[in-house]
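Researcher: We're teaching a course module on how sequence relates to structure. For the next exercise, students receive a sequence and then see the predicted structure as tokens, so they can try to spot secondary structure elements on their own. Here is the exercise chain.
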Amino acid sequence: MKKSNEAKGKKLPIIIAAVIIILLPILIFVYIRTHPRWKKAELTIEASESTVKMRWINAGGDTLETRIIPPEGYERIPVEEGSFGAYLRDYPLLPDGIKLPVYDGTTIDREDAAAVFDISLGDEGYQQCADSIIRLYSDYFYENEQYDKISFLLSNGDECDYERWRKGRRMFVLGNFSCELPAAFPDKSEKQYRNYLKEVMRYAGTLSLQKESEVIPAEELRIGDILCNDTHVVMITDEALNEKGEKCYLIGQSFIPAVCYHIVANVNGDEADPWFTQEQLEQDSFDVGPYRFKKKDIRRWKDGF
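Model: And here is the predicted structure for the students to work with:
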């Protein structure tokens, strides 16, 4: 009996070591998957070489409202102070006439980029088309301390909620499977907010935006609404109205590779116009830059703004 106990005593440390060897890589893997680390990318600002003339531009304006003026006969539609529309109109812009900064430090010269938001990018290139819109929605709520409204679906339909994230809950995602784990201490810092957004950007996209939005008629379009199909999404970023009751819109986007959110313009020969008319967007199909959308792609995220 004594020898048997001694044998068991010798085996126990071996068993414990084997369990640790097996579990440790799994725990490290889970930790890495549940603890994203957002890092600000270093962006390059370069003058554009495009010869296209952009209409309705005040080069000295440093916000959306002061940079892009309404077309002749139009006036911006009034928005409430503190609203999402006011937030976008007051958004700071990078200098006029520059190339699009890319997350990896390169630039892209696009003749249809009318104005570029002074918005940070993560160094791993997640802030693409849907992500840039999620970022603007989320930042608006964050800056207004409406934390309960910061919640987004992942592409598999599961929810990633910021308030739960602040309390230490984390999403573990593997393929199409995801679950929420108590994997961290409570943390209300801005750094942890950026980490949360990186997690959303990893696993959300055009498909998830479709799941949490509804199709609306073109005539109901307003600031914050999106044009979203399976491959691309853009957002109504501003709107103006003429005496006839006709609207026109500024439309913003990012794309792959991740670039700063920017206003996209119609290019016709050597001229470009950043305003899209109501008539254009009421067609059965229409183009925004190189991307084609249909009526069924006109959508409102949740309850809208």
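Model: If you want an answer key for the exercise: The mean pLDDT is 94. The chain is about 30% helix and 25% strand.
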